[in-house]
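User: Can you help me understand a structure? I only have the sequence.
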Amino acid sequence: MLREFGNFPRAKVPLSEDCGFIWAYCGREIDRLLPNADQDEMRRQARAALAARRNEWKKADKRIGYTRAKKAEEEIADVEEALARELWSAAPRSVAGVAVKLHSLLEMEDPRSALKEAPWPELRTILADLVRICAGPNAI
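Assistant: Let's start by predicting it. Here is the structure, written out as tokens:
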């Protein structure tokens, strides 16, 4: 959405004659920035511009499917979190079970293994040690 529009729906609100403008992202901001009765027309124009921009945003959202995808992502994240809580509360029965729990934690908190400060590299090393132990002496 931002790639297509460059920014969120907004409207230019003039500050005063030849003093530039400020962006408003909602009607309350427009009303706050243009509170005087002699600014009614500017306020109406800014609100109309904002409404038009929001309408364009909604049409693009429907076409692209951003809101639908975001909602599906949130639902999947909720399921993932519930499953992780269930896994983490289960008592492991083996070293492999401990490795699974640690792997789950690492993937949930640092899915791309991008965190380089402690304790993340050390936790990844511990996981590798557990996997090696579980695989046995002849696995490598």
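Now, to help you interpret it: The beta strands are 11-14, 21-24. The chain has a mean pLDDT of 93. Let me know which part you'd like to focus on.
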